[in-house]
Amino acid sequence: QAVQRMFFYIKDELKELGFLYSPFLKPVLQSVFGNISYAEPPITEAEYQLSLYRYKLDIGEDPNILYDLIYFTIMYCQDPLNNPLTGTLCLPKEMRE
Hints:
By secondary structure, the chain is mainly α. Helices cover about 55% and strands about 0% of the residues.
């Protein structure tokens, strides 16, 4: 809790310097504020692709996942800490304002 309060205290300075949403600070923020429940049973990329394919079939969309894979490749190569399997960092409301 002390570290969380420290980040609340220096939030404005981090934002002003452009570090608050930096990929270099994300691991620290994830460890302080994050939820690591995604780490329970890891799945492989192939299982992810199959689940995406199945999801598209279930909601009645075209099951072509190529465009989704291209999108994920572009988005998640820009920030190596983002991952479609684990999601992106979601900070508490006080840190996002």
